[in-house]
Queue: 2 jobs
Job 1
Amino acid sequence: MNYSLQFGEILRHWPDLLAGAITTLLVAFVAFWVGVLIGLGGALAQRHGRPWLRRSVRAYVVFFTNTPSLIQLFVLFYGLPDVGIVLTPMQAVLIGLSLNAGAYLTDIFRGGLASVRQAELEAAATLNMNTCQRFRYVTLPHLAQTLYPMLSNFFIWIVLGSSIGGLFGVDELAGKAIEISSTTMRSIEAFSVAGAIYVVLTFIASLFLYAVGYFCLRVRARFI
Amino acid sequence: MLPLSVQLHQLFTGFTFTFLLQAALSTLALAVAGCSCGLLVGLVVACLRRSRTLYLLPLRMVLVVFVELMRRIPFLVTLFLTLFVLQALGTNLSFFSIALIAVCLIATAYLAEIFRAGFDSVPQPQIDAAKTLNFSPLQILFTVMLPQSWKVVLPPAFSFMVSFIKDTALASQLGVVELTFAGKILITRGYSAFLIYGLVMLVYFALSWPLSLLGAWLEQCTQRAFNPTADAMPAGTTPITPALPNPALLDRR
Amino acid sequence: MPHLDINNLSCSYGSQPVLDGLSLSVEKGQVVSLIGGSGSGKSTLLRVIMGLTQPTGGSISIGEQAVDYGSAASVRAAREKIAIVFQQYNLFNNMSVLRNVMVTPTRVQKRDERKVRDEAMTLLSKVGLKDKANVYPAQLSGGQQQRVAISRALALQPQILLLDEITSALDPELVGEVLDSVRQLARDGMTMLLVSHEMRFVREVSDQVAMMDKGRIVEMAPPEQLFTQPQQPRTQAFMQKVAWH
């Protein structure tokens, strides 16, 4: 009961935490964009691919969305060495989070593709656009418009989700907090400061994404 | 490490398998308890946030801050904070109870937000009509708002609760013997990490997948409810409803 | 003694005055119609009477009882005596027609369920919707929904009925059936205050017609007088503009 809060020692590690926050953003950024690539590819494959491809993409999505990403990382990091593949923590976390994000994003993009109006595609076809042009001028703008709010929220979700990287020794925000809490023994302070940084980080990210959506895509995403 | 054949033999004959099953039950217990608490308290929080009484204003502000914080701090950090704060307060709770408290806090925040979105979907004129008919606030809630918002609330609430089964994996970090931690224990006894975590993954999958299918089915049902014309909707106008992770975060449009 | 007495009522949204010192009284058994351009405050007046929008000044009394809009109990008492039918019907989407009519008498007024059911069926058959009792609002036409809304209001056994542009949202061929129901009510001696753009109907059914402009009543007179010899320039201008069918 005689616990007194002392933030001084945590604040001395301020540069560390800041570096951690930047790593967090980087990890989230990589995982998000790789996920977007996987997601777009997966959604297109599910829509236009051959039956075996559709089925295997579906299996990937169902499997990765129905198992915890923590366990996916465990398998990658602790499991794979048993079969002779050794990954660094950073590699394992990036691969795991990207695959995980890719599965969710495949589902999101699939919904987006299904909502493109057939009439618009037909109109584009009558204008002699080829498949690539139709995708570029009709489908992609539609996806950007309708999915933007979901995607920007998904990015925030990945920022939060990337915190499990800290458990594998990746030097991102949560990892730094764990490290600082074990060296200084001031756990409450370390984790509450880390929590506050997460709040600020996601808030700035939301605000930024809102502004980009508003000015570039004319989409109003909620940021609170 | 033991040879693979010995591992497999021991895994399916010894008590190891029941050990994993018990751990799965513990995972389920965490998820169910968190969700039940979240549903109840989240509903109350959402209702309080709608109240317009002046003397509840401070409470409303606290609730807004609480919900926003919980949704912007990673689950892992919340778990650790709960653990250390409760320990510093001198409470002598088991790891399971501590995880339970953290899980309840998080579920409450997310489900409160889902309820809020549901309540916002009820058209104001419906509420005005009920007011002019002298409905009490509770009558408005139970006879108008809840019956009209459940089809907006149910799909995201259900998929949140399913995803919660996976999220409780993090409780292993506190030392709660649920599925993930049980896997760790088995690995220290000489099993292959690849084998055990693969198995643990399959158990999670077996818990989560049937429920996701049920959720997708429920969503289809709710889309038809009160809307007999839904089947006749022209192609291309169907709303986008992909399966989403933590929908409370994602539906913030 | 007027049944509904509105005295010097004012109301504003922000700095914009919507009702500006409005006075009006409705005698028992009278039908008073409010006409006027959009934005003249007609619907706001009805919302204020029902306690959905707070007045900023003035007073309203029903019977002999003044309504205090700051007090929940007083507003409750007022709503016991007045019922309103909205432009957009506002039937509860989650309840069948019969339950829409029955829910307030049974749940709020705590009256006997069997008796209420009989009354509700009588009301529904009066508006010709007895066979739709177990159907949901979404499956009805606008005109049918509006007649259910009238039955729902009447099931409260109100002393005064407010009708807020009840035909504005309807297709032209559905207007007749709703107005017939209101005519029947007028013949039965129901006290009503209604807002309408159906000039012919207003002229036929009202005892008094009040012309509203900028949140006040410019002129109030029996229909024949107001429609044929309007006194005020604002009323004259309005009469020239409205289409006569």
Note: Residues 16-50 of chain B form the longest helix (35 residues).
Job 2
Amino acid sequence: MVEMTLNGLMVKVEEGTTILEAAAFYGVNIPTLCYLEGLSPYGACRLCVVEIGEPGSAKVATSCTHRVEDGLVVRTHSARVMKARRMLIELYLASCPSSKIIQDMASNHHVTRVRFKQRHEDCILCGLCVRMCAEQMQGKAIGFAWRGSERKVTTPFDKKSDACRLCGGCMYVCPACRSRCQGPQAEQAVCNACLNLPQTDRNYLFFDNAVCEAMEPPGGAPKKMTNRGA
Amino acid sequence: MAPALKRFAAPEEVMKVRQSLEGRLDGNRPRLAICGDTGCTVCGADGLAAAVKEVMERKDPAGRLELKVTGCLGFCEQAPVVLVFPGAYFYRKVKAADAEEIVEKALLQEGPVARLLYTDPSSGKKIACAGEIPFYRHQERVLLDANWHVNPLDIYDYLARGGYAALLKVLGGMSPGEVLGEMKEARLRGRGGAGFYTWLKWELCRTRAGSKKYVICNADEGDPGAFMDRSLLEGNPHAVLEGMLIAGYAIGAVEGIVYLRTEYPTAVAKLDQAVRQARELGFLGEDILGSGFAFDISIVRGAGAFVCGEETALIRAAEGKVGEPRQKPPFPAESGYRGRPTVINNVETFANVPLIVNRGAVAYRAAGTENSGGTKIFCLVGKVNNSGLVEVPFGTPLRKIVFDIGGGIKGGKRFKAVQTGGPSGGCLPEEKLDLRVDFEDLAGAGSIMGSGGMIVMDEDTCVVDVTRYFLNFLKDESCGKCFSCRVGVDRMLEIVGGITEGAGSEEDLALLEELALVVKDTSMCGLGQTAANPVLSTLRYFRSEYLAHVREKRCPAKVCRALFRYRVDEDLCSGCGFCARECSAGAIGEGPDGLYLIDPAVCNRCGVCVEACASDAITKE
Amino acid sequence: MCKRPLEVEDVLTRVIVANGASVVTALQEIQNNYGYLPEEVLRAFSRKTGIPMVDIFNTATFYNAFSLEPRGRHQITVCVGTTCHIRGAGMLIEAVSRLLEIQPGEVTPDREFSLETVNCLGCCAFAPVMVLDGKYYGNLTAGKAREIVGRIREEAAEGAPEADEGESGGSREGVC
């Protein structure tokens, strides 16, 4: 066990856990979009940033990748963190407004406006689908391609992949997928797992609300991480 | 290829060969050094070297004169450049046709060819000796000095200059701890950008358990406008190899990797040759010089991605994977290449290591500031009179670099800003010119040292446009993994782009600043964390220029296309019509009085008409 | 660009023997041979090594040096480094772009020219710089660039003998 300071409280945490897991254990909810228990931490959505170190010389770090250590001082909801988090949520809203998870997050953080030009990119490149496919399904059917603002999730050469078993795991974990699948541009959807589904299945998944409800983890993805503490 | 070189089995053999090489690079030995660096080659140095060789074969069958094609001689503005010893005469803009005269004078030792000498613009006098030219005189060329003398393809040249003496010294009786102590005492800091203390990095790696460790040389020089690492590798590659060897000895590594930018084919070839020669002579491989220390170096060629300059991305790229950074910690010193403890340093950092060992830390530190020892190489480019490679001690004021060495602004224009640290650095205004160049001072002013790019801008450069340029660069070069860098940079670009198009508002400036601070705070790697610097530094020092764009919809430098127009001056227009013929947009037509007019609604501001106009009648307004 | 491409199998054998599992070096080798990365070769490489196709595709699209499309017979690269930018590289690109009717990153329909940009060639003293078939041109203006490209295009149209000097990474001589 190591001893660390979490939001001013001295707490004991099992060695090797991440700050995110430790916080969840003590009931502190840190928002995330790219973390899911069972998948390797990725550190891409940046929402889980926390301040570590003494005020004045504190650094900002992602709690999903940073492991606890003795004497670590963590503030999960400091002014600096909240300011950054709100800005990030605003950016998320500006590119993926139709995700219920992101909309809920915005309400929880009192993000009430978007000052950027509205886009409908949907995919936020959290990489959950890619990791789901590779790590849980041993599929390796979808992956990242290109770089920078061109980056996207796709199959090799944007073609139907033989490695895909149509398990739908990618869609199950996608924080934006449900709404995108109802979108008007379903044929060009970025989550290319859909490319691999036969036409009939695609329609079924897109438009059957019951299926969509079932794909939504109870209470939204972020809360799942508290399992470890239970 | 030359026959295999004889392997040295013991330090004494090296000493013996070195004695036999004495005088080889003596300043009094007649020789010509032709710059073989990319810049000079572009301007015809290859043809020049061939011509000189041909003349020498004819006029100097005895071989009294020696020809060396060297690495970058520094003063790129004057390319192609030739140095003649003895005397270190500096010839500029030399053509193949000048070969005859140069060789003749050099053979007769009759002094310099006057018409090829550099003219001091302030006094109008010709300067013969390179060292007296202001560009060189104000520098302290410790690392770059070798570039004047050494043929990078010949390891014996390096040996003749005392090369690998530092390695001998280290292997001959310094413990790894002592080597680290020297680096600490020398205040050597990483030249790649962040300025981390080299000894600390090495110490972290040395104390890690595990027998397999790696030394990586970061030669993925991606900053636009920076080529000092290339110049070192192309001019004096063995210094870098020797530095890596010493690092390997200090941390207990047996393998080194140079990760080299693919856009530098010449550097790859020269380094490859250097590694091969070092291996043949026994400076690399098993049981080096009979000491029992084993170390070898391989070269990995990059495939073109700026982000691979970031150390965690570089490690992944060197492993042959996608060069995406990952969150630190763990640091490479704990878990690096193939998960092993790894030291990554920049080319220039390694090149400093043999110097420190040879001279001793105290002597080395005599140059520099109290926190940063030694010199730093900068690439001084942009709207400055003397573009080139500049080496000065840490702590040198910017003004000295830009004006004394750089010779001020081209065309007598006014200085506006100097941009340091590449795309993730900042733009510093005139009032910051007395800043000492140092990691802390630059950071305090909102810029960074970076790897040493220094781009000078004049009054005709629009800082908002330059900021847009950098953001556009970073948008393409961000790996796209982390949201704040990928989307943050894209959105900053959207805002700044809007401003350059005259669509910005004052609220946009506030939003831009707020966003920039968040991107700086929350990005995963150095690329994103510094991506905000161009925005923040220009907002800080050039807010009035931004305000002119958003309030008055005016671009003071007349660069942003939406905010200026071309006009034909009726008093100057001769009615020749060249402009209309060249205009591909069809925006220029003949007016009723036979003079030409530009329709601003059709004109796309390409500027071709300005070039075409023989009477300089077309101006921006 | 490439001489005679080797058979897929030969290339792969050579690539795999020489490089083990490094995808980047393997792709460099493939690109050297074909001038670009043909889909069927990448797929064969994946089958042969067991490296998942997604990883290969990710690598192939991540780095600038790789191209999934064949390039033009004449390659034009305009440097867009900072110095070139402030000395007018944008105008060069526009001029060449308009002349050839392609954007950077594209190839003309007749596969004669491809236009690319590079972030810095390190010859900032001669900015702006353009490279055409391995030959460097410095201190350019939009007009000069158009003239140079136009000349090559005319030669190509007249069926003049192919300029053979343009071997990749080839001659660095140039004009400034």
Note: DSSP finds seven helices and five strands in chain C.
